[in-house]
């Protein structure tokens, strides 16, 4: 049963309204940091100061990949973790434990904003136009981070004392490995439940896909373009394998669907996102490399998908005389992410749905998500978790924006959920 009184909720919601301009300034501030892979530290230091000012007990440290490598969801990095911290701020309950402890977690890493010339505004000077804030990472997911922090700040402003511990976590590498989330949980910063305010358009995620990354290096036989008929163009040969991945995408979507995704016409995406090779227009390239992302259903072992994709590409190579004798080099890195599910009948899911209804007077919709989030890390630790967050558009694309009305709604829903889950210590 819900523990939120109308009086408490009214006081907290008024505090959120009073703090609204400050929340927007905070979001603009963290949105101004270009916190792409390897450049997250300044953002984390800024947020740490904010949490310190809220009298939370903060801990900042860099992940240790050797320590994390035993976890199922560990993603193999090709970069180091020096000066790339994760952050947690703890709000300890002083009295008797009346409710359940909670983690509010968000990632502060963002994808590249290139090509920046396609943006109507500078992607790292967040701009508000027609009640939308534009900027790289503003929707995915610095807006959710702001909502989580200001929900807690509003509770403090309303002099609410919680009946259980609350942790605010900001992590790195949600966009590529998930090792940031694993690092905090591995260090013992755990709880009875978790919420990630990813941009879900005010829906609760009950299922999400697994994801893995691969790299394919294709060898050619270079020459001056004048003798191109005697050479083997690595770029041209790579198109055979890129087409093979397109055929693989069609193949896996033609198979029986996971029950959570039967409503979706095309749940499994295969995307070639990076390609590089060659160094001169008049030279036949010796090598070409491309990198791709492959999605798969919950309950599937990423290692099995890796082997299936590898064999699919090698079989396609056998159809070409050159590739048959010079097969591609196929390696895997980054995401090794399992799928994740949570029952829509679970206590945590129902309490978030209840908080949503108290805020919006509408029933919360559920979402089977065709990508991945850090939810899977909580699944590996046996912590019930879901995502619920704001609306907007153009994630991973030019002119990304967040709808500010939805951001305020999410802030109020998170605050209501905290009151219900952690309970109030009078």
UniProtKB/TrEMBL annotation:
Pfam families on file: M20_dimer (PF07687), Peptidase_M20 (PF01546)
Gene3D superfamilies: 3.30.70.360, Zn peptidases (3.40.630.10)
An example molecular function term from Gene Ontology annotations: hydrolase activity
Metal-binding among keywords: yes
The keyword Cell inner membrane appears for this protein: no
Cofactors required: Zn(2+); Co(2+)
Transmembrane segments: none
Keywords of the record: Cobalt, Hydrolase, Metal-binding, Zinc
Domain of life where this protein originates: Bacteria
Peptidase M20 dimerisation domain boundaries: 209-320
Family under the similarity heading: Belongs to the peptidase M20A family.
Protein name, entry field: Acetylornithine deacetylase
